[in-house]
Amino acid sequence: MSRHVRFGIFLAPFHALDENPVLAMERDFELVEWLDRLDYDEAWIGEHHSGGFEIIACPEMFIAAAAERTRRIRLGTGVVSLPYHHPFMIADRILQLDYMTRGRAMFGVGPGALTADADKMGIPVAEQRRRMDEAVSVLVPLLRGETVSRKTDWFELRDARLQMECYTKPMVEMAVASARSPVGARTAGKYGLGMLSIGSTTDSGLAAHASNWKTCEDISAENGHRADRSRWRVVSMMHVAESREQAERDVEFGLERWLKYFREITTFPIVPDGVEDHLGYMRENGVASIGTPDDAINAIERLWEGSDGGFGCYMLFAHNWADWAQTKRSYELIARYVMPHFQSRLAARSDSYDVSAENNERLAGEAQKAVQLEIDRHQQERARRGEAGAWQTTRAMSERG
Question: Which of 143, 342, 363, 370 could form a disulfide with 5 if both were Cys (CB 3.0 to 4.6 A apart)?
Answer without folding.
Answer: 342
